[in-house]
Amino acid sequence: MKKAGVMILFSFILFLSACGTVKKEQATTVKDEQEEATEASKPEQETKIQANDESNIKEGGDTETSQKETVTAVKTEYQLNENNWTIEPINNANSKVVLLTIDDAPDTYALEMAETLKKLGTPAIFFVNGHFIDTPEEAAVLKAIHDLGFPIGNHTYSHQNLKNLSEEQQYKEIVGLNDKIEDLIGQRPKFFRAPFGSNTAYSKKIAQDEKMLVMNWTYGYDWEKEYQSKEALTDIMVNSPYLVEGANLLMHDRQWTREAIEDIVKGLQNKGFKMVDPAQIKTVE
């Protein structure tokens, strides 16, 4: 009888133990299923957050790009007199102005000249030769000048006299350089200056087709030996008999011109001249 009672008690204990195990397993299974469900939902939530963040970044970037691309329109106030190459006011614009132009850039000193002009708040056109922007380092200099806010003009690829070239060669000298400049700075030049001021009927046609204003100059001296010093060049540029309202001043990428350019600007300003912004000059449409 006692033996039978012990057996019954033992069986009851086993039963309770089994029930506990089942409950524990059920609890574990439910917990596991909940954790799996939670983990399964995480990627979707994170993906949505990342997508929203990316959208915000993209939208912000678009706004920033839009702001950078917004360029304040500059009013056209001057035009080029093609008979004497002076800059003439349109309507009531200030007539006591001169235009600064730098040829043969960027040979050696153009960037330093651009930095000096930028410091002085003085605009100018930099007329570029293609053989000075053949290497990545030279191309970077051109881009730096452009990034300082100076317009880039076309001075042909290799600075040859266009009157000695065939039409095909002239086309390559001019349009080939425009293509190269556009690749580097994203813009085609609006101004064209033939080497030695030697234009041809065909080069003028190309310039017209390329929407470039053909521009020679009023006076310049820095290629003449007697003016290849800071003092001599400053004096002649500021006191030239050809200094008139609207004068179109020619200078070059040369050491003595770099040394003189700040004094030239200040000397012209002391005479009451303002340096005209090339963006205010009417170009070819």
TrEMBL record:
This is Peptidoglycan/xylan/chitin deacetylase (PgdA/CDA1 family). It comes from Cytobacillus oceanisediminis. InterPro entries: Glyco_hydro/deAcase_b/a-brl, NODB_dom, Polysacc_deacetylase_ArnD. Residues 30-68 are annotated as: Disordered. Residues 96-276 form the NodB homology domain. Residues 1-18 form the signal peptide. Pfam families: Polysacc_deac_1. Keywords: Signal. It comes from the Bacteria. One of its GO terms (biological process) is carbohydrate metabolic process. CDD domains: CE4_NodB_like_6s_7s (cd10917). Residues 55-67 have a biased composition (Basic and acidic residues). One of its GO terms (molecular function) is hydrolase activity, acting on carbon-nitrogen (but not peptide) bonds.
